[in-house]
Design brief:
Number of domains: 1
Helix content: 40-55%
CATH architecture: Alpha-Beta Barrel
Strand order of the largest sheet: 1-2-3-4-7-8-9-10
CATH superfamily: Metal-dependent hydrolases
Number of strands: 10
Structural class: alpha/beta
Oligomer: single chain
Order of helices and strands: EHEHEHEEEHEHHEHHEHEHH
Length: about 300
């Protein structure tokens, strides 16, 4: 596998306005580029998994585009959207594409408890579908207050669960079928979906809770893309490959919010796994992402 061709679709930035800034590693674009070079990552999509006010969202997207300007051959942008404000979101989609030349969008699993399958999101989904947009679905803290547990870092366990909630709501509501041209990339290997896929599909025929068939649900899983950020383990690789095949898997690191040691470990595990053959590794590392994001096609 030519590791210089790895494309990282799940890559963030660190800004001084981050509330955890003091506890995060020293970071700037030069540090980022040098680290990518060491890892053999040749293409990166920058994103911030937030949904804010229209004005703040515009500022964030300009901020992301400024970072990507460090090297536009290697860096692209997944723009934010103020999803709670429909009209402003439609305008931001236009601005992101036509002015900033963004590569796609990063949307959170929920905005104040409103998940992406909510009918109030339909105008937004319709526009993203019309533009055949690539959208990275990124988890946030769930809408309901999480229970107090011994580990306070809810992102470790609640993020994958909230990803699962959001995608199942999107599938069960029929929105994946209704808006087939959106190219959804699901963070962290789809949360719990690969493991629970069979159980999740039985709702269609056993509880009659939805109008979709079991095949509709399983086909919806197969029409999504899944990044492997924070998910590079043999069990995940095997289960995800069984569910959707390698053509729907893309590479992601969660850098720089994930420590360098973890990112390096992820790349090495992927490079050395025997679950994927050489051709499949090339597909996951860069071929599928290059097809999704023309910026990297060369």
């Amino acid at each position: 596998m030519n590791t210089e061709m790895i494309i990282d679709v799940h890559h963030h930035v660190i800004g001084r306005n981050n509330p955890n800034y003091a506890n995060l590693p020293t970071w700037d674009m030069q540090i980022d580029a040098e680290e990518n070079e060491r890892l053999g990552i040749g293409g990166v999509l920058l994103s911030l998994p937030v949904s804010s006010t229209p004005d703040q969202t515009r500022a964030i997207n300009d901020f992301l585009t400024g970072f990507a300007g460090y090297d536009t051959k290697r860096y692209g942008v997944l723009a934010c959207l103020p999803s709670a404000h429909v009209d402003a979101t439609l305008k931001e989609i236009e601005y992101a594409y036509d002015t900033l030349h963004a590569d796609g969008f990063c949307m959170p699993s929920n905005v104040g408890g409103m998940y992406i399958g909510d009918d109030r999101m339909d105008e937004i989904l319709a526009e993203l579908d019309r533009r055949s947009a690539a959208v990275l679905l990124h988890p946030l803290k769930p809408g309901a207050e999480a229970p107090h547990l011994s580990v306070s870092d809810f992102s470790v366990y609640e993020f994958p669960f909230d990803t699962t909630r959001a995608i199942m709501d999107l599938i069960y509501s029929g929105k994946v079928i209704k808006y087939p041209h959106i190219k959804w990339i699901i963070s962290h290997a789809g949360g719990a979906i690969p493991y629970l896929a069979y159980r999740l599909s039985t709702v269609a025929e056993e509880s009659k809770a939805i109008t979709l068939s079991k095949e509709d649900v399983l086909n919806s899983f197969k029409n999504l893309y899944y990044d492997v950020a924070l998910s590079t383990s043999p069990g995940v690789f095997f289960t995800l490959k069984e569910l959707v095949g390698t053509s729907q898997i893309v590479f992601g690191t969660d850098a720089p919010l994930r420590p360098n040691t973890g990112v390096h470990e992820s790349v090495e595990i992927f490079k050395n796994t025997n679950i994927f053959n050489a051709e499949e590794k090339q597909s996951i590392a860069y071929k599928t992402s290059a097809a999704l994001f023309p910026r990297f096609a060369k």
